[in-house]
Amino acid sequence: MERALAQQDLVILTRLLPHEEKVLVRWEEPIRQGGLFTGSQVLLLFNDLFQNYRAVKFSLQSGTLLPSGHLYHCVGSWVLRAASGQHQTVELHVSLKHNAGIWTIRELRQTR
């Protein structure tokens, strides 16, 4: 996931998004988006974001495997550059769920 966001790699993101379950998205900046979306809808959100912003870097700040062993929560710092050249730092919380041997994104939430 870290590489997918840092390199704006939609192929990797496709593998991380669920096919049948919904993803909770809560973004305020740089685009306002919120609700439950299918994996393909989230991919379209990323595609739209990548059309208008370039990732300068994405780095994981922390991560926690929850006691069940099937949920992982991590926080990353994502620095984006708008077409105008202005930089913006987004703190992104990501929850992943382990099911049938693969991890998929369940939640994408921005806090600042």
Tell how many strands the DSSP assignment holds: 6
Number of discrete domains: 1
Treating each run of at least 4 consecutive H or I residues as one helix, how many helices?
A: 3
Shape type = globular
Q: Strand content of the residues, in percent? A: over 45%
Rg for CA atoms:
13 Å
Mind describing the biggest β-sheet?
6 strands, mixed
Strand order, biggest sheet?
A: 2-1-6-5-4-3
Averaged pLDDT: 90
The CATH C-level name is Alpha Beta
Name the helicity range: 10-25%
Find the CATH topology: Nuclear Transport Factor 2, Chain: A
CATH architecture label: Roll
Q: From the helix content, strand content and strand pairing, which structural class follows?
A: alpha+beta
From the N-terminal CA to the C-terminal CA, the straight-line distance is: 20 Å
H/E series, N to C? HHEEHEEEE
Care to describe what's here?
With 112 residues, the chain is of the alpha+beta class. The protein has a single domain (2-110), classed as Nuclear Transport Factor 2, Chain: A (Roll), CATH 3.10.450.50. Helix content is 23%, strand content 51%. It is built from three helices and six strands, in the order ααββαββββ. The chain has helices spanning 2-6, 10-16, 39-52; strands spanning 23-27, 33-37, 53-65, 71-82, 87-99, 102-110. Strands 2-1-6-5-4-3 form a six-stranded mixed β-sheet. It is globular. The two termini are 20 Å apart.
